[in-house]
Design brief:
With about 230 residues, the protein is an alpha/beta fold. The protein has helices at about 50-55, 60-65, 75-80, 170-180, 200-210; strands spanning about 1-5, 10-15, 20, 45, 70, 90, 95-100, 105-110, 125-130, 135-140, 160-165, 185-190, 215, 225. The protein has a single domain, classed as Ribonuclease Z/Hydroxyacylglutathione hydrolase-like (Metallo-beta-lactamase, Chain A, 4-Layer Sandwich). It is built from five helices and 14 strands.
Length: about 230
């Protein structure tokens, strides 16, 4: 398995040949100006919530790829309003687990807010746990530190994708605590550097995680990482 990082919280997983894209925000990210959005063709697009910096390229990428879009119920309704065919939209909710060709996906809690780009209620924000064979990967989405994360501690997570930029989500200090809560040593940082309020010192972040016995990966935009 591998990932390609496209900036902000946009990550494309390659689950043994199936491409799964999370939170597509590329076109309007000045840090991702060298990424050709038209070249991205996932089989699935997962949305953690409806804020613009997580869904801006959903419609374009879905049309180019005919991907199935997965989201919480109210955000999924917004997806359908963008012209995505109903049969290409999968809605579910907290406690739900999808069984898909590449594995299973469980929706989990995230502490944040949620509205869609048109200003309507988007349901709750969420995260996902992907069960791929014997591997388990947690994508936290936009979230503050929350005790709900401790419910994941017995899943034996292989990797956790955690926001580290602060201001709108938890910062690097809280992310270290989150790694402890979910009992995962391998972390990929997301939701940082895109805007001035969430700019970080990467060296400081790496050192902080190392001192806590954690591995922090900060792949460059367009960079790949083997999981």
């Amino acid at each position: 398995m591998s990932i390609t990082y496209y900036g902000q919280s946009c990550v494309e997983f390659n689950f043994n040949g199936t491409k799964v894209l999370l939170d597509p925000f590329i076109t309007y990210n000045t840090l991702a100006k060298n990424i050709d959005v038209s070249s991205i063709h996932p089989e699935y697009i997962f949305l953690s919530h409806g804020h613009q910096d997580h869904v801006a390229d959903m419609e374009l990428i879905q049309k180019n790829s005919n991907a199935t879009v997965v989201a919480i119920v109210e955000t999924a309704e917004w997806v359908r309003k963008q012209g995505v065919a109903p049969e290409k939209v999968v809605e579910f909710n907290f406690g739900g687990t999808l069984t898909l060709p590449f594995g299973k996906v469980k929706m989990v809690y995230a502490l944040h807010t949620n509205s869609t780009p048109d200003g309507n209620y988007g349901g709750f924000p969420c995260g996902y746990v992907f069960f791929i064979g014997d591997r388990r990967i947690y994508f936290a989405g936009d979230t503050a530190l929350t005790l709900e994360m401790k419910l994941l501690s017995d899943l034996h997570l292989d990797w956790a994708f955690l926001p580290i930029g602060g201001h709108y989500t938890m910062d690097m200090i809280d992310a270290v605590k989150a790694a402890e809560f979910v009992n995962c040593k391998n972390i990929v940082g997301i939701h940082y550097d895109t805007f001035p309020p969430i700019a970080i010192n990467k060296k400081e972040a790496t050192t902080l995680f190392q001192k806590s016995g954690l591995r922090l990966e900060l792949p460059p935009i367009g960079g790949k990482l083997i999981l």
